[in-house]
C-alpha cells in the first residue's frame, strides 16, 4: 500500500506542474500587473511603469518568466515579488494560511460529523418524517448560494447578540477572525475570542458541504443496509446497534473519504466567499485583493498553495481508503 | 443487468411516465416554468426596464414597485427579472458547454483507453486540482462582464467533472456485447461513440446537465458576488444580492428577493434532476423480491 | 416422526412495491424434525426465499407477515427484534445464496466467525478464536489457521460459502436454513459445499431446510420435499413420493425438464410460459395458465392441498389421473 501511495504522490507532481503552468499563462494573458498604473489619472510617468515592469519580471518573455518563477519557488521557496513593493508574499501567505486552514479544517470536521449522522439516521429511518426533513434541508442548503447563506447567518448572529437588549455584548462575532484589541489578553481569553469569531463562518462553510455529503452518505448507507453481508450479520443474531455500527457504518464510510477529498478544492473556494462575507483577513480575502490589484504572483501563490493542499488531501484520503478497505490494501 | 438498447420511442415514453410519478419533480418543473415565464415574458411586459431610473428611491414594496426600489431608483422587480434572465442564460450555457465538452472528453478517454485515457484524465486532474472559483475569478477579472465569456470559463472548468463521470460509464459500456457486435460489423470508433456510447449514457448525461444548471446558477452568482462576474449596468441575481449586502437591514427587500429567486431556481432544478435520475435508472425500483 | 423443531403454519407474506402489494407467500406450511432434511423446491419468484427470511424476521420493515412460525413450540412471528436476535444464529442459522457478497469485505473471515460465536456465548477471545479455526477445518478449508486471517476477497466462492456454513454452525443451532446455497457456484464446487453442509448437519444435529430450484440438489439430500409454485405449496411428501409418484402437473413438469443420465423417457419436456404475477394472483389454480390438463374448474376453483396417500399431499383437482403418468404424456406434443 505504501508503494501505491508513493505512486499516487509521484503522479501528482506533473499534474501540479502543468496546472501551475496553465494558470500562470492564463492569468498572465488576462492582464498585466501594470494595467492599474496606466489607468490612473494623472498619468504615471512611462519610466516608472518600465521600472515596475522590470521589478516584476514583466519585461521577460512569458516562458522565461514562468521558468524563473518556478525556479525561485522550488529552490528558495520564494513566491516572487508583489505589486506592492512593501509587501512580502511569503510572509503574508504564512500568516493568512493559519486563519484559513483553521476555518477549513473545523468546517470540514463539523460537516463530516453532521453529514454522517444525518445520512445514517436518514437511511435507517428511510421514508420517515425525519428522513424527509433531513433530505429536504439537504436540498435546500445545496440550492443556497454560499454567500447568501453566510449573510443570513451574519444577520441571525446580529439578531441573537441584540436579544438581551444590548447589542454591544457579543456572543457571536460577525466581523473579522479575531478582536483587534482584548482588555485582558490571557491565553484562555484569546482562545474564547477566536472561537467566538469562528462559530458563524464555520457553520456557513460547513452547511454547504453537509448538504452534498449527507445525501451521499444516505445513499451509501442505504446500499450497505440492503447488502447481503448486513443481512448475514443480522442472521448471526447480532444486536441491531452492532450491525449498524460495526457492519453497515464501517463499510459505508469508505466511499465518503474519496468524496471528501474530491470536494476539498471546492471548500477552499467556498472559504474565499465566507471570508469575504465575514471580513476575515485570510487567504480568501488575499486572493480577491490580489486579483483586483492584478498581483499576479500573489494569485499564483494562492493557487499553488491550494493545489498543494488538494494533492495532500487526496493523498491522505488514499491512505485512509487503504486503511479502511482491505481490498485496496492488498491490491 | 443493463438493458439492451430499446427503441427510443418506448424508452422515452417510459422515462416520461416514471418522471410524472415523481410528484415533487413535476411540481418543480411547473414552478421553474413559471419562473422562466416571469423572467422573460414579465420582463418584456413590465413598465420599467432594469436600466430605468425612477424618481422613487429606496421605496419598500408597493403597488407601483412590487419589489421596491434601490437607492438610485431602479425598480427591483425589473432588476430581478433582468437578473433572472441573465443568470438563467449563463447557467444554461454553462451546462451545455460542460456537457458537450465533458461528454466528448470522457467518451474519447474511456473508449480509446491506454495512452489517450491517461493523458485526458491527467488533464482532468489538472483542472480539478485548483479551486474552480479562484481560476474563474482570476480569468473573470478581465471578462468585463461579457456573459458568454463567464459561461465559457465556468463551463470549461466544470467539463472536467463531467468527463470523469462519463468516462466511468463508457468504461463499463465498452465491454458490453452490443459494442463488441458493432465493432465486429466494422463500425469505426466515431460511429460507435456517437451512435452507441452517447445514447446509452444519455440518462446520466441529462441528469448531470440538469444538476449543472443548478451549479451554474450558484457559480455565476458567487462569481458576481466577489466582483468578477456580471458587471453593472447589466445585472444578475448574484450581482443584485452583492449590491444589497450592505443594506440587509435598511432595505431588506433588495437582498432577500433576488436571493429567494436563486434558491428557488437551484432548488427546483435539483428536484427535477432527482426526478430524472429516478426516471432514467430502472434499477431504482427499490424493493427486491 | 418425532416432534417438529420448526413448524410453519399458513405463512403469508405481502411485500409492497411501486405497483402494489405482491403476495409473495400465500399459505405455506411445513415442519422439520431434528436431524431431518426438508427440501423446498420452486422456480425463482415462487416465494421460497422470502418465506425463509420471514421465519427469522429478516424482511424489510414494511413487509406484512401472517400465519405462525413455531420453534420448539415458541411462536417467533411478532417477537420484538431484540428477542428474535437471540434466536437468530443460536437456534436458527441461515446460509444465503451468494457467497461473493455474503461476507463483510472489511473483516477477516476468522473474525466474522468469532463474532457469530460471541453474539451468543462468552467463551473468551482465545477459546472463540480456536473454535473458529476448528469450524473452518470442519467445513473442509485447508490450512484453517492461516485462512482465518484472510479477507473474503482472498478466498474463492466455494471457500466463502464454506465460511458461511461455518458461521451457521458456530452456535450448534436447532435448525439451519440454507437458501440456494449452491446456485451461485460451479458444479464441481457445489458437491464440496453440499458435503460441508452434510458435515454441519451431522456435527450439530440440526434440522436442515434446503431451499433450491435444483431438483438434483434435493434428490441426494432431502428426506422430505415441498414443491412451491406462485407462493404456495403444491405438493409435499417424502422424497420418494414426490420424485417417483408426483401427483401435481407442475412437479411432473419440473421432473420432465430435468436432464437425466438414465434418460428414462426420451425427450426433455419444458413447461411453457412463466409464473403468474403475484400482484393479483388468479382466483383458481395458479398453475392453470401453463397446465396442459386445465379445464374450466381449474380457473375458477383453487385446489386444496389434499392427502393422496400416506403423508403425501398434492394440490390438484385431478391428482388421481396422474398415477403412473410420465411427464411426456402430459407435457409432450
UniProtKB/TrEMBL annotation, chain A:
* A Pfam family that the UniProt record links to this protein: BPD_transp_1
Where mainly located? membrane
Q: Keywords for this entry?
A: Cell membrane, Membrane, Transmembrane, Transmembrane helix, Transport
Please state where this protein is localized: Cell membrane
Q: Which InterPro entries match?
A: BPD_transp_1_N (IPR045621), MetI-like (IPR000515), MetI-like_sf (IPR035906)
The organism sits in which domain of life? Bacteria
Signal peptide stretch: none
Transmembrane stretches, by residue range? Answer: 103-124, 136-153, 194-213, 251-273, 296-321
The residue ranges of the ABC transmembrane type-1 domain are 97-321
Its placement in the membrane is given as: Multi-pass membrane protein
Keyword Cell membrane in record? yes
Keyword flag Transmembrane helix: yes
Q: Which family is annotated?
A: Belongs to the binding-protein-dependent transport system permease family.
* PANTHER family the record matches: DIPEPTIDE TRANSPORT SYSTEM PERMEASE PROTEIN DPPB-RELATED
Protein name (database record): ABC transporter permease
Look up and give the organism this protein is from.
Pilimelia columellifera subsp. columellifera
UniProtKB/TrEMBL annotation, chain B:
Q: How does it sit in the membrane?
A: Multi-pass membrane protein
Name where it mostly resides.
membrane
Q: Where are the transmembrane segments?
A: 24-46, 90-112, 119-141, 147-166, 205-230, 253-273
Any idea which UniProt keywords this protein has?
Cell inner membrane, Cell membrane, Membrane, Peptide transport, Protein transport, Transmembrane, Transmembrane helix, Transport
Task: Report domain ABC transmembrane type-1 positions.
Answer: 84-273
Q: Which InterPro entries does the UniProt record give?
A: BP-dependent_transpt_permease (IPR050366), MetI-like (IPR000515), MetI-like_sf (IPR035906), OppC_N (IPR025966)
Q: Which domain of life is it from?
A: Bacteria
Pfam families according to UniProt: BPD_transp_1 (PF00528), OppC_N (PF12911)
Q: Would the keyword Transmembrane helix be found if you checked this record's keyword annotation?
A: yes
Q: Where does it live in the cell? A: Cell inner membrane; Cell membrane
Per the record, the similarity remark reads: Belongs to the binding-protein-dependent transport system permease family. OppBC subfamily.
Q: What name goes with this protein?
A: Oligopeptide transport system permease protein OppC
Automatic annotation (TrEMBL), chain C:
Task: Write down the SUPFAM superfamilies for this protein, in alphabetical order.
Answer: P-loop containing nucleoside triphosphate hydrolases (SSF52540)
Look up the domain of life of the source: Bacteria
CDD domains, per the entry: ABC_NikE_OppD_transporters
Query: Known InterPro entries for this protein?
Result: AAA+_ATPase, ABC_Ni/Peptide_Import, ABC_transporter-like_ATP-bd, ABC_transporter-like_CS, Oligopep_ABC_C, P-loop_NTPase
The cross-references to SMART domains, in alphabetical order and at most eight, read: AAA
From what organism does this protein derive? Pilimelia columellifera subsp. columellifera
Swiss-Prot/TrEMBL keywords? ATP-binding, Cell membrane, Membrane, Nucleotide-binding, Transport
Enumerate the spans annotated as ABC transporter domain.
6-255
Localization in the cell: Cell membrane
**Any single Pfam family the record assigns to this protein:** ABC_tran
Query: What is its membrane topology?
Result: Peripheral membrane protein
**Protein name as it appears in the record:** ABC transporter domain-containing protein
Recorded family membership: Belongs to the ABC transporter superfamily.
Q: Which residues cross the membrane?
A: none
Amino acid at each position: 500500500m505504501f508503494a501505491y501511495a508513493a505512486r499516487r504522490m509521484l503522479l501528482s507532481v506533473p499534474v501540479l506542474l502543468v496546472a501551475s503552468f496553465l494558470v500562470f499563462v492564463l492569468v498572465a494573458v488576462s492582464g498585466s500587473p501594470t494595467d492599474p498604473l496606466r489607468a490612473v489619472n494623472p498619468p504615471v510617468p512611462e519610466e516608472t511603469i518600465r521600472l515596475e515592469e522590470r521589478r516584476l519580471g514583466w519585461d521577460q518573455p512569458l516562458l522565461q518568466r514562468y521558468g524563473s518563477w518556478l525556479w525561485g519557488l522550488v529552490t528558495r521557496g520564494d513566491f516572487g515579488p508583489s505589486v506592492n513593493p512593501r509587501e512580502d508574499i511569503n510572509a503574508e501567505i504564512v500568516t493568512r494560511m493559519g486563519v484559513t486552514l483553521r476555518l477549513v479544517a473545523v468546517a470540514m470536521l463539523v460537516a463530516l460529523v453532521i453529514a454522517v449522522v444525518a445520512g445514517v439516521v436518514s437511511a435507517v429511518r428511510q421514508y420517515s418524517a425525519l428522513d424527509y426533513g433531513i433530505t429536504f434541508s439537504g436540498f435546500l442548503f445545496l440550492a443556497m448560494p454560499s454567500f447568501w447563506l453566510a449573510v443570513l447567518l451574519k444577520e441571525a448572529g446580529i439578531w441573537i447578540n441584540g436579544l438581551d437588549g444590548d447589542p454591544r455584548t457579543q456572543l457571536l462575532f460577525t466581523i473579522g477572525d479575531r478582536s483587534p484589541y482584548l482588555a485582558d489578553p490571557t491565553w484562555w481569553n484569546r482562545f474564547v475570542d477566536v472561537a467566538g469569531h469562528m462559530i458563524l463562518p464555520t457553520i456557513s462553510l460547513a452547511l454547504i458541504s453537509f448538504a452534498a455529503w449527507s445525501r451521499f452518505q444516505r445513499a451509501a448507507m442505504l446500499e450497505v443496509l440492503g447488502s447481503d453481508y448486513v443481512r448475514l450479520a443480522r442472521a448471526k443474531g447480532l444486536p441491531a446497534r452492532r450491525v449498524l455500527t460495526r457492519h453497515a457504518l464501517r463499510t459505508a464510510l469508505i466511499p465518503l473519504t474519496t468524496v471528501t477529498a474530491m470536494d476539498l478544492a471546492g471548500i477552499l473556494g467556498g472559504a474565499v466567499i465566507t471570508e469575504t462575507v465575514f471580513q476575515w483577513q485570510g487567504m480568501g480575502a488575499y486572493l480577491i485583493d490580489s486579483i483586483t490589484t492584478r498581483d499576479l504572483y500573489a494569485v499564483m501563490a494562492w493557487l499553488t498553495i491550494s493545489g498543494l493542499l488538494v494533492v495532500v488531501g487526496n493523498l491522505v484520503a488514499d491512505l485512509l481508503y487503504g486503511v479502511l478497505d482491505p481490498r485496496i490494501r492488498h491490491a | 443487468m443493463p438493458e439492451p438498447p430499446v427503441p427510443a420511442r418506448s424508452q422515452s415514453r417510459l422515462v416520461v411516465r416514471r418522471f410524472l410519478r415523481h410528484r415533487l419533480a413535476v411540481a418543480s418543473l411547473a414552478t421553474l416554468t413559471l419562473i422562466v415565464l416571469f423572467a422573460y415574458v414579465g420582463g418584456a411586459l413590465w413598465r420599467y426596464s432594469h436600466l430605468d431610473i425612477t424618481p422613487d428611491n429606496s421605496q419598500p414594496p408597493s403597488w407601483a414597485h412590487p419589489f421596491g426600489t434601490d437607492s438610485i431608483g431602479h425598480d427591483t422587480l425589473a432588476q430581478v427579472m433582468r437578473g433572472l434572465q441573465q443568470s438563467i442564460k449563463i447557467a444554461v450555457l454553462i451546462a451545455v458547454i460542460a456537457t458537450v465538452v465533458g461528454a466528448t472528453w470522457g467518451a474519447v478517454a474511456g473508449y480509446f483507453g491506454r495512452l489517450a485515457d491517461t493523458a485526458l484524465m491527467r488533464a482532468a486532474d489538472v483542472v480539478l486540482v485548483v479551486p474552480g472559483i479562484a481560476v474563474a475569478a482570476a480569468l473573470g477579472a478581465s471578462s468585463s462582464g461579457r456573459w458568454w465569456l463567464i459561461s465559457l470559463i465556468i463551463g470549461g472548468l466544470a467539463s472536467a467533472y463531467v468527463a470523469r463521470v462519463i468516462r466511468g460509464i463508457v468504461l463499463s459500456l465498452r465491454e458490453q456485447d452490443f459494442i463488441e457486435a458493432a465493432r465486429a460489423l466494422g463500425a469505426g470508433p466515431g460511429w460507435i461513440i456517437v451512435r452507441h456510447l452517447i445514447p446509452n449514457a444519455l440518462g446520466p448525461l441529462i441528469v448531470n446537465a440538469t444538476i449543472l444548471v443548478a451549479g451554474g446558477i450558484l457559480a455565476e452568482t458567487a462569481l458576481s458576488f466577489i466582483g468578477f462576474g456580471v458587471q453593472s449596468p447589466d445585472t444578475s441575481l448574484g450581482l443584485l444580492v452583492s449590491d444589497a449586502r450592505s443594506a440587509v437591514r435598511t432595505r431588506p427587500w433588495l437582498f432577500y428577493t433576488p436571493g429567494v429567486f436563486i434558491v428557488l431556481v437551484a432548488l427546483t432544478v435539483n428536484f427535477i434532476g432527482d426526478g430524472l435520475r429516478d426516471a432514467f435508472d430502472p434499477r431504482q425500483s427499490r424493493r427486491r423480491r | 416422526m418425532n416432534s417438529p423443531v420448526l413448524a410453519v403454519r399458513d405463512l403469508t407474506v405481502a411485500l409492497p412495491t411501486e405497483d402494489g402489494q405482491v403476495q409473495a407467500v400465500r399459505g405455506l406450511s411445513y415442519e422439520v424434525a431434528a436431524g431431518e432434511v426438508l427440501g423446498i423446491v420452486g422456480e425463482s419468484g415462487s416465494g421460497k426465499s422470502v418465506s425463509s427470511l420471514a421465519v427469522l424476521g429478516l424482511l424489510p420493515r414494511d413487509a406484512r407477515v401472517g400465519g405462525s412460525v413455531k420453534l420448539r413450540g415458541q411462536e417467533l412471528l411478532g417477537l420484538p427484534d431484540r428477542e428474535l436476535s437471540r434466536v437468530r444464529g443460536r437456534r436458527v442459522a441461515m446460509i444465503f445464496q451468494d457467497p461473493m457478497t455474503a461476507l463483510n469485505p472489511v473483516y477477516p473471515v476468522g473474525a466474522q466467525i468469532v463474532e457469530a460465536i460471541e453474539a451468543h456465548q462468552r467463551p473468551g477471545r482465545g477459546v472463540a478464536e480456536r473454535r473458529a479455526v476448528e469450524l473452518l477445518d470442519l467445513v473442509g478449508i485447508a490450512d484453517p489457521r492461516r485462512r482465518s486471517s484472510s479477507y473474503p476477497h482472498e478466498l474463492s466462492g466455494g471457500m466463502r460459502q464454506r465460511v458461511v456454513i461455518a458461521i451457521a454452525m458456530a452456535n450448534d443451532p436447532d435448525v439451519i436454513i440454507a437458501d440456494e446455497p449452491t446456485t451461485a457456484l460451479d458444479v464441481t464446487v457445489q458437491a464440496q459445499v453440499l458435503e460441508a453442509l452434510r458435515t454441519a448437519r451431522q456435527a450439530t444435529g440440526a434440522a436442515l431446510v434446503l431451499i433450491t430450484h435444483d431438483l438434483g440438489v434435493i434428490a441426494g439430500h432431502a428426506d422430505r420435499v415441498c414443491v412451491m409454485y406462485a407462493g404456495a405449496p403444491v405438493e409435499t411428501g417424502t422424497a420418494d413420493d414426490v420424485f417417483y409418484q408426483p401427483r401435481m402437473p407442475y412437479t411432473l413438469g419440473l421432473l420432465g425438464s430435468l436432464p437425466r443420465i438414465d434418460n428414462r423417457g426420451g425427450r426433455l419436456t419444458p413447461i411453457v410460459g412463466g409464473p403468474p404475477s403475484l400482484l393479483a394472483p388468479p382466483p383458481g389454480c395458479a398453475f392453470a395458465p401453463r397446465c396442459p390438463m386445465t379445464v374450466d374448474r381449474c380457473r375458477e376453483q383453487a385446489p386444496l392441498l389434499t392427502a393422496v396417500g400416506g403423508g403425501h399431499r398434492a394440490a390438484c383437482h385431478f391428482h388421481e389421473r396422474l398415477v403412473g403418468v410420465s411427464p411426456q404424456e402430459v407435457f409432450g406434443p
